[in-house]
Write a structure and sequence with these properties.
six-stranded parallel β-sheet; Quinone Oxidoreductase, Chain A, domain 1; seven-stranded mixed β-sheet; 2 domains; single chain; 26% strand; binds zinc ion
Amino acid sequence: MSSMRGVFFLEPGKLELREVTIPEPGPGEVVIKIEAATTCGTDLKGYKRGHRLFRPPMPFGHEYAGVVTAVGAGVKQFREGDAVCGANSAPCNTCFFCRRGQQSLCIGIEDSFNFGSYADYFRIPAHIVAQNLHHKPENVSFAHAGFVEPLACAVNGVINADIQFGDTVAIIGPGAQGLMQMQVARSVGAARVIMIGRARGRLEVARALGADAIFSSQDGDPVEFVKSLTDGRGADVVIESAGASETWSQALLMVRKGGTIVQYSGLPGGTQVSFDATHLHYGGVTMKGVFHLIPRTVEMAVQALASGAVDVAPLLEGSIPLEQVEDGLLRMARSEVIKLAVEPGLTG
Ligand SMILES: [Zn+2]
Ligand SMILES: [Zn+2]
């Protein structure tokens, strides 16, 4: 068999399942048979309105876990039959930003992205094999191992929040990222995690995953709610993962003097957000933007899945064959599901 199926992104609102040639690994590369490729909010955004990084027509999907079927010259750490998972990008480690330890800002990161995991087979380029491909822990299913990339981003958001043992952490946005960040925050020492959202169903998932308090913005002012739980001070740390300019502003009102905010969600290009400058300045608040992942957080994500520190099972709401990727994204758009595992082994 030399041909395979792969989902292609043609233009906003249009995907196509194509018959293409199975890739061959070049030097340093591996080819894997996809066991599970998880759907992602970035795919949905790109599908609906295009994406800066999407150059259609292009192979689609970027989260993955699978089994190595071919290994290129020079690859030593993987062999045929190995179960693997990982990220779909890797820094150059030589540019201005990488030399300063800011690998998520690597000038080559955008060109390093590897797409095409909604397919029977997926080629992993050498720079990713070298840095961000890992052996799948045996006790983690392929579908859960597909979460390594988004979890690595979530971990990067949380470790940049400098959570101290005993802190109260408020997270805005109970989507896949917020629900993972909540668990990471707890495992790095937060004593109390408050989840703020809108949809009550998602907030109940947060509660089931260990949120100490949940609050829907449909029921009042989340800032007042957080203050009522913290003697009027606000949370020690706030992580904004909801993706709206209102919640970016709200994050600043919700943090205590001397606290830290991570503005984690990306807003559409050119968005302006207004802030309470008095609280930022006189309150000595630290506000950071955090984007993407670094190789160290990819490793941490693999470990978090293996140890059970992060439970992704409640975020995964079913498996679908390649034929149903478009339908699956539409189900995400309607907020019926958080994430789905695309499993090429299933029949449409
Ligand atoms: Zn993703
Ligand atoms: Zn770089």
